[in-house]
Amino acid sequence: MNSRSSARFGYDFAVYDRDGRLSALLEAKRRFKITPAWATEWHTSVVERMDRAPDAFVVLVLPETIYAWRPHAPKDAKPDWTFDSRPWLIPYLVRANIPVETVLGQVFEG
Questions:
Q1: Lowest mean pLDDT: which of 14-18, 77-81, 102-106?
Q2: CA atoms of 45 and 8, how far apart (whole Å)
Q3: How far is Cα 56 from Cα 31, in angstroms, rounded to an integer?
Q4: Could you tell me if 62 and 55 are in contact, meaning their C-beta atoms sit under 8 angstroms apart?
Q5: Which of 9, 33, 35, 48 has the most crowded Cβ, counting Cβ within 10 A?
Q6: pTM more than 0.85
Q7: Residues 15, 22: Cα–Cα separation, whole Å
Q8: Mean pLDDT, range 28-46, rounded to an integer
Q9: In the chain, count of helices (H) and strands (E)?
Q10: Cα 89–chain centre separation
């Protein structure tokens, strides 16, 4: 992915492979009851701000759901994968004594 594209998408986390190549861009949001249609609109908005579709997975992490798109997915693509995020997030929130329904956006900030 070129640097101009990444600069126009204010993602929260970037994941790199062992060779230092960008593998995934992640955005974390504190939103509940998000539908795949809303996630598609979000993806469309993100890719429209980029020079071209990203060369990496784009992942939207929410307290209840994770939506992910394959590299080079068209801007209006529906998510390629949808996961229940609670099995992955809740153990961390429990250890931090944070109920998932009250998690603040700052929890996702590094």
A1: 102-106
A2: 11
A3: 23
A4: no
A5: 9
A6: no
A7: 6
A8: 93
A9: 3, 5
A10: 14
Nearest by Cα to 78 from 90, 68, 66: 68
What is the Cα–Cα distance from 63 to 84, expressed in whole angstroms? 9
CB 28 within 8 A of CB 65: no
d(CA 17, CA 64): 26
- The C-alpha atoms of residue 73 and residue 27 are separated, in whole angstroms, by 16
Tokens of 36: 């795949």
| Rounded-to-integer distance, Cα 30 and Cα 77, Å | 22
86 token code pair: 């609670």
Spatial CA neighbour of 62 closest among 101, 22, 15:
101
Rounded to the nearest angstrom, the gap between the alpha carbon of residue 86 and the centroid of all alpha carbons in its chain is 15
Question: Can you tell me whether residue 7 is helix, strand or coil?
Answer: helix
Q: What is the DSSP letter of 96?
A: T
Q: How far apart are CA 62 and CA 65, in angstroms?
A: 5
| Residue matched to tokens 């998690």 | 103
